Amino acid sequence: MADLVLDRLTIAYGNVNAVDDISLTVPSGEFLTLLGPSGCGKSTTLFAISGLNEATSGTIRIGDKVFFDGARGIAVPPEARNIGLVFQSYALWPHKTVAENLSFPLELRKVGRAERDSRIKEGLELVEMGKYAERYPFELSGGQQQRVALARALVYRPRLLLLDEPLSNLDAKLRERARIWLRELQERLNVTTIYVTHDQSEALAVSDRIAVMSMGKIQQLGTPTDIYERPANAFVADFIGSANFIEAELVGRSAGQAQLRLGDGTQLVASSCPDAVSGKLVLAIRPERIELTDAPGANVLGARITHSAYLGSVHEHEMAGQGFRLRVQTSRAVSSPEVLVRIPPEAIMIFQNGPQAL
Amino acid sequence: MAAATLSDHKVADRKVADHKVRPIMDAALERTGFDRSRLIFWSVAALTTLLVIGPIAPIAMQAFLNKPLYDASATLTAANFGRLVTEAGIGEIALNTVIFAVLSTIFAQVFGALAAVVIGRTNLPGRGWLGEVLVWPLFVSHLVIAFGWLTMYGPSGYVTLAVRSWTGVTPWDLYSLSGMGVVAGLSQAPLAYLMCLGAVSKADAQLEAAARSVGAGPFRALWSVTVPMMRPALIYSTVLNFVVAIEMLSIPLLFGAPNKIETITSFLYDKGINAAVQPDYGIVGAAALILLAIVAFLVWLQGRLMVGSNRFVTVRGKASRPALLDLGRWRWFVFAAVFAYVFFTIVLVFAGTLMRASVSFLTPLVPFWTLLTTKNFDLILQTPNYMRSIGNSVLISLIGGVIGTVLVAIITLVSRRSEFKGARPLEYIALFPRSLPGIIAGLGFFYAVIWVPGLDAIRGTIWILILAFMVRYIPVGFGTIAPALAQIGDELDRGARISGADWWTTVTRIIAPLLKPALFSTFALLFIHFFKEYVTAVFLFQPGSEIIGTTMLQLWAQGDNGPVSALATIQVVITAIFVLVARRVLGAKIYG
């Protein structure tokens, strides 16, 4: 199978570019997630690939088979793209049984009855729904409907599988199981998959690569580790793992380290610093990386807890210091409101401050 | 439930190899260049445009020609309008039309809205069957209702004479503008009732509950929260009823003629058909064009008034129905009032038709059972012309109902559920016949068949009637199918498209089966509308293609009220049977 290529894809609604000049290559067999807040253009991109939305300009192709080319006026209708799509609402046809739901795409492909029956059977077994072939969708639970929807999208062996937040209608516990199962299935079938979600933990758990999107643009494209450990910008740092942000100034660099000064004059050391930044900076620090400490020292700041919340596995504290606010997670409750916090040098991510910082 | 089977992948593993080896089967999906969906889009758009323009273009032409449309020597002129405004009595006709329309709208709205609140929201005894009876007038034509009123409340009507013989005074005069307004208004009240009922009974119960929680009593909550939410329904039905009144022919004709009270429609009818000499085509065309413009303006106004009515939309998700208000000791008093209304304006009117049909002479002075006879029905049943009109009516309603449902379904699907670029314009065109009064549609098609070469073939057949009726009621069908369609999530069509189905396959295999209940309701509604329609037919029928309504008008002109009532009774009975069957067998929803 061939790679999916999006080249300079733009989708405009009136004056607004819902998808703004994005380029992306998805190698055959990859599980790629489009992640971002609502309105970032991820679903719009997905539906443009499926053909259900028409793009404005750019190209969409798989290998040398062109689905859309704005310049040449090519737009292959969705029904001729042979793509599998699982909808957020599953979109099972309510008047057809589970088996009939799977049968319909095969009938459209003129697959003979015997062949059809065996494919329906194997498709349902793949999602462990073989027993439910004669049920109607309303007789199934949400999780079961989701599996049937997946089976329906796979039964005709599409060249590409698109998933539009397929787990968002499941309850939390089922969702975690389903995503493991989904990933295993995808690996076994080795079908190229584009997955759309706004849930960062889901994205981190299932993806080969993640494209973090905002305002119609890809902010960062990388493996889950890249995205979490090395966010390309403050938006990504904030969206994945909701970092704390502190404004600071670069004072100097030495031996790979950076000396930073906060607004009140406090000095901090960071263990790494991008070469390109200078002057006004913004520091991103994840709440779970900040430590409480008893003794003053390097990278230790004084702060006062303004609010604490018990979240079960951790305690989360809002605290205010001289010119900064922090969210900090601790494993135990804190008795005194006046605390000292240590920010490890390796926990500090540095971005240039500016209008686009966030 | 997922966990139980998650670990067992053995069977599945064997299949995986298959998936990789077997080729993608998309050969069957390759298109050969011919796109039948696009062909359907354009054909439907062209057909709809043709059907809607069909009756309008000839009228617009005729209004500016000095001779009949078919006369080759006719030349363009604006003189028709001049002759129209200087026509004797034209000012009075305009004034009559406005007074009649205003009066009947007021009566319709007041009674309809009151009935909606009382029946929809209080513990009125018998609210179920009272509500049923209240919508009866919608099932039959104004012609039937007008005859019913005439029989009971006319100058020599049964009730009128009874009251006069007891009290010595004539209590009312239906042959007056106010009499006409009352009759027309009460026959249109069910429409206002239904629309307001929808608004008050479907209102979200939580909104009134919220009012109660901040301290409002139950009646205050109803009055301050729910009644204002009737406003869009009230505005909408007000304009609708005003339009209906302006284009109404039966009541002005039957009640206005004796005292020479003319409205625009009876003027058109008179000039277009009954004119002793050759009909004055120019003046008729000009008057028709003006009527068309006025109605189109009113429908446009209705749309404007409804802008922003979203703030009254409360039906979101699964709202629970609001609780009924306890009328307390007023309960039976209100019941008496509603019952009297239903009994005197609906039950008696229908009963009057049946009574008149069953006797040789209807008068309160002689017990009616001594005058019982079957000769009125015999006359109908033994006259081939009359029987043919019944057969034609049924045939037109059946054929037209089926064809109309299919046509409107396709129009709705193309305009609401397709990638057709002209979807919005198509919807506008399809809804335009709301502005097309029946008398204009009839006149327009009448001109069209004599004007357009080739159309002569269907002239004077039931097919021209089917065509004209269909055009008139496209919006009715659209209004039934579109809301049902909106209930079907569009991801169901998208799912079919991505599975490899083109638009037409998606529509026929996925949407149409899901739409089936709405399609049955549409058929039932179209059948009823076609069955009671007569205004559109008055210019179009010829011996051989007469329908019940036109035959009733002819019999009335001869002064034969017995056979007229017999024919009306037959129409009511057939309608009743159809409604029962449609509700039982087809599960059709007709008026609530």
Structure notes:
The complex is a heterodimer of chains A (358) and B (592). Chain A has helices spanning 42-50, 98-108, 113-126, 142-154, 172-189, 200-206, 224-229, 234-239; strands spanning 4-13, 16-26, 31-35, 57-62, 65-69, 74-75, 83-86, 160-164, 193-197, 209-214, 217-222, 244-254, 257-262, 267-270, 280-285, 291-293, 300-310, 315-321, 324-330, 338-342, 349-352. Chain A has 358 residues and is an alpha+beta fold. In chain A, the strands form 4 sheets. In chain A, strands 7-8-9-3-10-11 form a 6-stranded mixed β-sheet, with helices on both faces. Chain A has a 5-stranded antiparallel β-sheet with strand order 2-1-4-5-6, with helices on one face. In chain A, strand 1 and strand 2 form a beta hairpin. In chain A, helix 2 runs parallel beside helix 4 (142-154). Chain B is an all-alpha fold and 592 residues long. Chain B has 2 domains: 35-66 and 375-592, MetI-like (MetI-like fold); 89-271 and 303-373, MetI-like fold (Orthogonal Bundle). The interface between A and B is large, with 51 and 40 residues. Chain B: Belongs to the binding-protein-dependent transport system permease family. Chain B: Pfam families: BPD_transp_1. Chain B: Residues 94-302, 390-582 form the ABC transmembrane type-1 domain. Chain B: Its main location: membrane. Chain B: It is found in: Cell inner membrane; Cell membrane.
